[in-house]
Specification:
Elements (H helix, E strand, L loop, with lengths): L2 H27 L5 H12 L3 E4 L6 H9 L3 E6 L6 H13 L2 E6 L5 H8 L3 H4 L1 H16 L5 E3 L16 E4 L4 E4 L7 H11 L47
Parallel strand pairs: 1-2, 1-4, 2-3, 4-6
Antiparallel strand pairs: 5-6
C-alpha cells in the first residue's frame, strides 16, 4: 500500500469516527424534536451530501424535506417490477415538488436477470431478488452522500420498533435520518390530508403498503397493512433497512 493510499484510509476512518460522534449526540437531542426540525438539522449538517429515498407510495417525506431543502436529491429505485401507478406517482412528483428525482437502475434488466438466474426469481428466492433489484442498486447510489433520509416508522413492523430518528448505518458507513420514526398512521394520514400530499392511487384500492407488483397483494379490512407484502413467503423486509 502506498503512502497516498494509507493517508486516504486514515482520512476515511477519521470521517467515519466524526460521523458516528455526530449520530450519538443528534440521536439524543433530536429524539423528541418535530420532523421538520430533524430535517433542518440534517440539511444544515450535510448540505448537498444529503439525499432521501422514496418508494413513491406517497410523497409525504418528499413534501416535508422539499419545504426545508428545495432541490434535494430523491433516489427512486426503478426495480423493473413496479406497478404502473407507482411510475405515474414518480412522474407526478417530478412535476409537483421542487426536488431532483434520480432513477436508480439495477445492474441487470429484468430480462437479463431471467436469462442469467431463471424466470420468477422473486418467487423462488425473494431475498436474492430484493438484493439484486433494490439493496445493491441503492448501496451504489448512496456512495456519494454522507447521510440519507428515510420514511420508515416504528409502528410499521416489529423489525422497525427500535428505529432512532438519527442512527448510524453501519452497513453503508453513513448517517441515516428517520424524521417521522415516531409518527403513527393517524399522523401520517392527517399530514397527507392537511397538506394535499400526492399519494399512489393504489392506496384507494386496498394496497396500504406498496412494493413490486409480483410481491404485493391487496389487503383485506382488518389485516396488518404490511401483510400484502411477500405474502406466503415468510418475508417482511426487502433488506434496505436491515
Amino acid at each position: 500500500m502506498t503512502v497516498v493510499e494509507i493517508e486516504a484510509n486514515l482520512q476515511r476512518q477519521r470521517v467515519t469516527l466524526d460521523l458516528q460522534s455526530i449520530v450519538e449526540s443528534a440521536a439524543e437531542f433530536l429524539e423528541d424534536a418535530p420532523a421538520r426540525e430533524i430535517i433542518r438539522w440534517a440539511a444544515a449538517t450535510f448540505g448537498d451530501r444529503l439525499c432521501l429515498t422514496s418508494s413513491m407510495s406517497d410523497a409525504l417525506l418528499i413534501d416535508l424535506v422539499s419545504r426545508v431543502k428545495p432541490g434535494v436529491d430523491v433516489l427512486f429505485i426503478d426495480t423493473g417490477y413496479h406497478f404502473a401507478e407507482t411510475i405515474g406517482t414518480r412522474d407526478a412528483v417530478r412535476q409537483v415538488y421542487d426536488v431532483n428525482v434520480i432513477d436508480i437502475q439495477p445492474s441487470r434488466t429484468v430480462a437479463e436477470q431471467d436469462r442469467d438466474l431463471g424466470p420468477r426469481l422473486f418467487g423462488r428466492n425473494p431475498d436474492l431478488c430484493c438484493y439484486l433489484r433494490k439493496v445493491e442498486p441503492l448501496n451504489r447510489a448512496l456512495e456519494p452522500y454522507l447521510a440519507w433520509i428515510s420514511g420508515i416508522r416504528r409502528d410499521e413492523s416489529p423489525t422497525r420498533t427500535n428505529t432512532k430518528v438519527v442512527e448510524w448505518d453501519a452497513k453503508r458507513q453513513m448517517v441515516k435520518v428517520n424524521p417521522i420514526a415516531r409518527w403513527t398512521q393517524e399522523e401520517v394520514d392527517n399530514y397527507i390530508a392537511d397538506n394535499g400530499v400526492l399519494i399512489n392511487p393504489l392506496h384507494y384500492d386496498n394496497y396500504p403498503s406498496i412494493g413490486c407488483g409480483p410481491c404485493t397483494r391487496q389487503v383485506a379490512p382488518g389485516e396488518d397493512p404490511r401483510s400484502g407484502r411477500w405474502a406466503g413467503l415468510g418475508k417482511i423486509e426487502c433488506g434496505i433497512h436491515l
